Amino acid sequence: MRVLLIDDNKDVAEMVRLCLESQDNITCRVIDEGKAGLQLIKDDTFDVILLDLAIPEFSGFDIFKALREDNLLKSKNILIFTASSVTDTEVQQMLAFGAKGVLRKPLSIDDLIGAVERFRQRGD
Amino acid sequence: MTVYSNNTGIVSGVTEVIQVPYKIQELFIKLVKSAKEEVSLVLPTTNAFNREERLGIIQMLKEAALEHNVSVRILTPANIDVEKKIRGISAPSDQEGQSLGLEIRPIETTWGATITTVTVVVVDRKESLAMEKIDDSKDSFLEATGSATYSNSQPTVSSYLSVFESMWQQSELYTHVREANKRLEYANEQLLVTEKAKEEFISMISHELKTPLVPLKGYAQMLLRPKFMGGAELNERQKTAIEAMSRNIEKLEALIEDVMDVYKLDMGKLKFSMTDTDITKLINETISELRPLAIARKIELTTEIIANGTVFCDPNRIDQVLSNLIKNSIDFVPDNGNGKINVRVQKERGDDESDVNLFTVEDNGIGINPEKADKLFQKFYQIDTGPARKHSGTGLGLVICRGIIEAHGGKIWVDKTYGSGAAIKFTLPQIKKQLKAKEDDAGVT
């Protein structure tokens, strides 16, 4: 299965990539910049997209908003991946808008893998 | 004695009703032109202002003020159109922006209902003309005006003047109130900006503290599993080292969570998602989370739910409080099979006679020194238990508990009368109380 991670922290991104790619049949592409990330979400198909919110300039929030405006949120498997203090209400709102889940950093590798594996389709 | 007024030729001491609009208009202009010292004018509606402006009255008054030093005061409803015109009229101004000789103040149309239905002019404190409107919608003075009462009788003129003075003062007051309101609005806006900045700051700090933990935690866990490390097994020393790293990362993570909670409490930014919550369900969920830990330490963990039903609270935050208290107890009761912890909820009558839910977490541990009991709820205070200390908390847990309970309108304390062991009690009001802390209303749009 194909995973896209949009996160500007290189150490975080590399850890997540190594962790996920240690699983069977997972490839993880990393993008560290918001605008390019948004373009890739639109142009390509991924089984899961891990979206960090606090990316400088064009942030994860901006990507989230842009996808919402283009009605793409529901068709893409977006998992919010954030270390910011997100309130329960904000989480509920993001889920209502079509995010498939919110992962709070730091998280255990089992939780990370579990969240991603949920989207594995038969035959992957 | 018959005295003729210099201005109008009408006998002084006379009050006269004039029915012909044309004559009223003539008299109005004549009066304004005759002013030597002061003119006080009430234009009760915006339309009246516009009619008088078209008639040239406003221009005449401006010239009187600028060229003959006549003090002109006009009261007319505050309105954007009028204000624009007034700015034109009031010019030229001196350096401080004070208009010279001509001052216009706003009146509330609801004030002085009787006087503000008529246009009133008082000239030089000697003559007055009150002009009644018959149709305010008409553009021309002649069509709009019905009858008028002219007077140069001192009592009549004085009474118009005193009404004018009182409205003039009121208007000043009104202007002050309006300015004060504007300042308040501005201050309020600034406050909102500050509150938003606080929230962004908290979010940023949280992000900056937690982000470094992400690779630390992830890699520490991965190192312990050969699967993630290309199949390489660790030797015992490496394993011990990485397990210690892993444990300490967990501790640091908990500490950051606690510090952030205390920080948010201090800033009044700890958010609560309030909902009617089933008490039994709430307690059972907390207990089932902690039961494995209790079993591991051979501790008997029991509940006594005497007050069932619902309570209006943030269930996650109350779980946090209960969990914290129970974990404290777990750390302080014997782990030789004799340790006991009981969680009880009962209905009680509170200080203000309303119903409260009284929660008690009691244990048969080492107990709490009554002298130190109150300090427990202060920041970074932890009862020193010497070398036998097993307690792993940050010293912030009870501070956070107090913050959460007080935000719910409840109280938390150590029951000093409790026998062997410790009992911490807290209350949650049954009725919905005004929350001290803000409810979670932040939005993502």
What does the model show?
The complex is a heterodimer of chains A (124) and B (445). In chain A, α2 packs parallel to α3 (60-69). A five-stranded parallel beta sheet of chain A has the order 2-1-3-4-5, sandwiched between helices. The relative contact order of chain A is 0.19. Chain A has 124 residues and is an alpha/beta fold. Chain A has helices at 10-21, 34-43, 60-69, 88-97, 109-117; strands at 2-6, 27-31, 48-51, 78-82, 101-104. The N and C termini of chain A lie close together (6 Å). The model of chain A has no long low-confidence stretch (mean pLDDT 91). Chain A contains five helices and five strands, in the order βαβαβαβαβα. By secondary structure, chain B is an alpha+beta fold. Helix content of chain B is 44%, strand content 19%. Chain B contains eleven helices and 14 strands. Chain B has helices at residues 21-34, 46-55, 57-68, 80-90, 141-144, 154-210, 213-223, 236-266, 279-296, 315-332, 397-407, and strands spanning 15-18, 38-42, 71-77, 102-107, 118-123, 127-133, 145-151, 275-278, 300-305, 310-313, 340-349, 355-363, 412-414, 422-429. In chain B, the strands form three sheets. Chain B has a seven-stranded mixed beta sheet, with helices on both faces. In chain B, α6 runs antiparallel to α8 (236-266) and α10 runs antiparallel to α11. The longest helix of chain B has 57 residues, at 154-210. The chains are: A alpha/beta (124), B alpha+beta (445).
Tag the structure with descriptive keywords.
heterodimer; A: 124 residues; alpha/beta; five-stranded parallel beta sheet; 5 strands; globular; B: 445 residues; alpha+beta; seven-stranded mixed beta sheet; five-stranded mixed beta sheet; 11 helices; 19% strand; disordered C terminus
